[in-house]
Amino acid sequence: MDLTPHRRGALGLLAGGAAALSGCGRGEAGVTTLRFWAMGNEGTNVPQLIPEFERLNPGIRVEVQPLPWTAAHEKLLTAYAGDSLPDVGQIGNTWVSELTAIGALSPTPAAAADLLTNQFDAVLDTNRIGDRIMATPWYVDTRLIFYRTDLLAQAGYDAMPPTWAEWKQAMHAVKRVAPDGSYAILMPVNEFEQLLTFGLQTEEPLLAEDATRGNFSNPGFIAALAFYKSLFDEGLAPLASSTQISNTWTEFARGWFSFYFSGPWTIGDFNTRLPEDVQDDWATTGVPGPTGLGASAPGGSSLAVFNSSPHQDAAWRLVRYLSDPQVQVRFQEITGSLPARVSAWDVPALADDPYVQPFAGQLERARAVPKAPEWERIVTEMQIVAERMLRGEYTPETAAAEIDRRADRLLEKRRWMMERGRAV
Amino acid sequence: MTRLKPSTVLLNLGVALISLLVLFPLAWMVSVSLMQTGEAAVFPPPLLPSSPTLEHYRDLFANQGMGRYLWNSVLLASLATILALSFSVPAGYAFAKLRFKGRDRLFQALVGILVIPAQIGTLPLFLLLKQMGLVNTYAGALVPWLASIFGIFLVRQYCLSIPDEMLEAARVDGATEGQIFRRVVLPALQPIIVTLGLFIFLGSWNDFLWPLIILTDQSNYTLPVALAALSREHVQDIEMMMAGAVITVAPVLILFLALQRYYIRGMLAGSVKG
Amino acid sequence: MTMVAQTPPDPVHSERLPAKTPTKRRGGIGRRERAAWGFLAPALIAIAIFFVIPVVSALLLSLTDFDIYALADLANLRFVGLQNYERLLSNPLFWTAMRNTAWFAVLGVPLTIAAALGAAVILNARTVKWRPIWRVMLFAPYVTTLVATAVVWRYLLHTRYGVINWGLDSIGLPAVDWLGQPESSIPAILMFVVWKTFGYNMLIFLAVLQTVPDELYEAARIDGAGRWKQFRHVTLPAIAPTVLLVSIITVAAFFQLFAEPYVMTQGGPAQSTVTVLYFMYEEGFKWWNLGSASAVAFILFLCILAVTLVQLWVSRRLAGSET
Question: Which residues are A90's β-sheet partners?
Answer without folding.
Answer: A303
